[in-house]
Design brief:
single chain; 251 residues; alpha/beta; 8-stranded parallel barrel; 12 strands
């Protein structure tokens, strides 16, 4: 049985880590290089860095940040935000990232997933899905959660698997930053029906929420931000709690 992964997420704006609620109400959370090093020391399995502004200028700055992170970290990390083509991916991987995450570009051009998987390997291609529950079902959003699409979340997830994605990072916009628990229904729906790992994101507030997302949601990994950034749930304590409750994690 593969160990479940605990993944802190660092949203980056203007070179600093920030965090919001429901994708808005942003506040600063600290230096991304220092935070990343601290998480590695605490036992995080991986990290995710997302450039949430993603203009061309800021992505160049972000590549510089990736180089600094790569020199410091001893664990794998994923980077995303504003990635549009092969050159963007090559630049970030060359800077030291282990994986890249794409969202809007994949929705706008699904062929890009296949192109990237063929050139760089599925193992380093993560497709992020920002999902929101509506009257018509679970819908995919793009542009940092600002723009709804006509894509159904499950259908889109199945398509990107067929196109070569190696992992899915599923963020519930309804649950993001609320600390009321993960969106267990949609997480489990994908985790039980897809052959690739599903990383659950959005809603972590207590240790029990992590237990629920692994037991009930069947997620392969759980991603969170503010509960780690502001010291509400220390990673060593969380992992011990999960191990005590029969969840296989690396201590």
């Amino acid at each position: 049985m593969l160990a479940k992964r605990i993944i802190p997420c660092l949203d980056i704006r203007d070179g600093q880590t920030v965090k919001g609620v429901n994708f808005i109400n942003i506040r600063h959370a600290g230096d991304p290089v220092e935070l990343g090093a601290a998480y590695a020391e605490q036992g995080a399995d991986e990290l995710v860095y997302l450039d949430i502004t993603a203009s061309v200028e800021k992505r160049r700055t972000f590549a510089g940040l990736v180089e600094k992170v790569a020199r410091t970290l001893t664990i794998p990390f994923t980077v995303g935000g504003g990635i549009r083509n092969e050159d963007d991916v090559a630049r970030l991987l060359d800077a030291g990232a282990d994986k890249i995450s794409i969202n809007t570009a994949a929705v706008n051009n699904p062929d890009l997933v296949e192109i990237l998987a063929r050139r760089f390997g599925s193992q380093c291609i993560v497709v992020a899905i920002d999902t929101k529950h509506t009257e018509t079902g679970d819908i995919v959003y793009i542009h940092g959660g600002r723009t709804p699409t006509e894509r159904i979340t499950r259908d889109w997830a199945m398509e990107i698997v067929d196109r070569g994605a190696g992992e899915i990072l599923l963020t519930s916009m309804d649950h993001d930053g609320t600390k009321n628990g993960f969106a267990l229904k949609i997480i489990r729906e994908l985790a039980e029906n897809l052959p690739i790992p599903v990383i659950a994101s959005g809603g972590a507030g207590t240790r029990n929420h992590f237990l629920d997302v692994f037991n009930e949601g069947k997620a392969d990994a759980a991603l969170a931000a503010s509960v780690f950034h502001f010291g509400e749930i220390p990673i060593p304590d969380l992992k011990r709690y999960l191990r005590e409750n029969k969840i296989e994690v690396r201590l």
